[in-house]
Amino acid sequence: MEHRAEAAAQGVSTHRSTEKGRIRNDRTPAQGDEALILTTARFYVDSAALLEGQLILEGADHHHLSRVLRMHDGQFLQLMDGKGAIARGKILEISRACTSVMVEEVRLVEEERPLLKLFQALPQGRKMDSVVQWSAELGAAVVTPFACSRSHVLDVSVEKRFERWCRIAMESSRVAGRPYLPEISKARGWDEVLYELADVEVVLVADEVGGARPHDALGDAMVPEAVGLVIGPEGGFTQVEREDLLAGGALPVSLGDTVLRTETAGMVLMAAVRCRYGLL
Asked: Do 25 and 89 fall into the same domain?
């Protein structure tokens, strides 16, 4: 069961304001400051809210906009629904409880191809947090943690971290300005992973034994619909697991002569594949 990390905001058609309770920013805006701030503020909202033409940002989004970024009426921000729709929003009013935003210029962005699907063996401790964060920033479409012989086991602690990983993915995607939110899968067992890999058009496995460079392994064929990237645990795959992957059609690739940590190997492989298809 996948969970697409989405933020929801309530869309409204009108916004009544009162002078009491408004947040004022007394500084004088610089020339052009009424347009975008230096670092574009980005927020995920519900798809329906973009169609309303006007929406409300509340809670953490409102706090970030008003207290952290200290934005003011008339400034612009970017709104995304995590499903490819992007819009420019103009701040109408910032009150103590919420921010009213006018939605402008909604457009739909096509999702990148190939879709990058990272299959990451569960590392020890909180390393999976970093894997999810960096994967979201680099453009992974799906992140699937899994257990194997030498990885962290599937236990209650893994189940409890699932919602945390979804939040990390959403926040990292927001900062990166990704039109499409990644899917964070619940942790799988080894047999489940093999079953899912069978449906992925091209699969690369980072192999300690060695293999071709990612660019050479992918060759000059047309851009596939998806590429699966398989990263083993800190102790590496067992020989049986390696044979399972190769028997299923996975292509072994080398990431160079240096030894990479399991939490960084996937990022290197993902960057290499993105370069191959002109996505970097």
From this structure: yes
| Residue 101, phi then psi, degrees to nearest 5 | -130, 135
Query: What H or E segment, with its residue span, contains residue 128?
Result: helix 127-138
Characterize the bridge pairing of strands 54-58 and 226-231.
Answer: unpaired
Q: Are residues 127 and 29 in the same domain?
A: no
Closest by Cα among 133, 132, 111 to 120: 132
276-to-70, 180, 213 alpha-carbon distances in Å = 40, 21, 11
* Best CA proximity match to 189, nearest among 122, 136, 236, 124: 122
Instruction: Look up residue 56 and give its amino acid.
Output: I
At residue 201, the pLDDT reads 94
Q: Residue 182, Cβ neighbours under 10 Å: how many?
A: 29
* Pair of tokens at residue 188: 């799988």
Q: d(Cα 218, Cα 224) in Å, to the nearest integer?
A: 10
**Tens of pLDDT, residues 156-207:** 999 999 999 999 999 999 999 999 999 999 999 999 999 999 999 999 999 8
Q: How many CB atoms lie within 10 A of CB 183?
A: 18
Whether the Cβ atoms of residue 122 and residue 151 lie closer than 8 Å to each other: yes
Strands 54-58 and 98-108: antiparallel
Q: What is the pLDDT of residue 2?
A: 52
SS3 (DSSP) at 125: coil
Q: Are residues 205 and 91 in the same domain?
A: no
Domain that holds residue 173: 115-276
Q: Give the number of domains in the chain.
A: 2
Q: Are residues 125 and 185 in the same domain?
A: yes
Q: What amino acid occupies position 247?
A: A
Are 103 and 135 found together in one domain? Answer: no
Could you tell me how far CA 211 lies from the centroid of its own chain?
Answer: 29
